[in-house]
């Protein structure tokens, strides 16, 4: 017998942004959720550099649940959220509390959903 539960993990992928902006987004989420896993690319930024994708997975079932305050970004950040319906919705609400967001696209599957957002400073 195994425990059936709703998936609470959300994978957040950020692209077309500077390292500092990726850090600001992930730190904001870490104030609310527990960080499960993160990939830190070693690629150098600069002219002609390949696009870097920053990725982290957050567990929305637990964490410090601190108050979210708006965080500054140097530019816009493309974000892709993937996970269970409720969990992705919760992460999107937290991001909206800290940044200006524009919803670009949402794709729903049988068990999970995907949301594309554009984040900017408020």
- How many domains? The number is 1
Structure classification: alpha+beta
- What's the SSE pattern? EHEEEHEE
* Oligomer status: single chain
The major β-sheet equals: 6 strands, antiparallel
Which stretches of 5+ consecutive residues score pLDDT under 50? 1-5
Spatial strand order of the main sheet: 2-3-1-4-6-5
Number of helices: 2
- Content of β-strand: 35-45%
Protein model, in words:
It is a single chain. With 122 residues, the chain is α+β, with helices and mostly antiparallel strands. The chain has one domain. Helices cover 21% and strands 36% of the residues. It has two helices and six strands; from the N terminus they run E-H-E-E-E-H-E-E. The protein has helices at 19-30, 85-98; strands spanning 9-15, 34-39, 53-59, 77-83, 100-108, 113-120. Strands 2-3-1-4-6-5 form a six-stranded antiparallel sheet, covered by helices on one side. A hairpin with a 4-residue loop joins strand 5 and strand 6 (113-120). The radius of gyration is 14 Å and the shape is globular. The N and C termini lie far apart (48 Å). 25% of the residues are buried. The model is unreliable at 1-5 (pLDDT under 50).
List descriptors.
globular, 6-stranded antiparallel beta sheet, 6 strands, 122 residues, 2 helices, disordered N terminus, 21% helix, alpha+beta
Helix and strand arrangement:
Layout: E1 9-15, H1 19-30, E2 34-39, E3 53-59, E4 77-83, H2 85-98, E5 100-108, E6 113-120
Antiparallel strand pairs: 1-3, 1-4, 2-3, 4-6, 5-6
Could you write a compact summary of the structure shown?
By secondary structure, this protein is of the alpha+beta class. The protein has two helices and six strands.
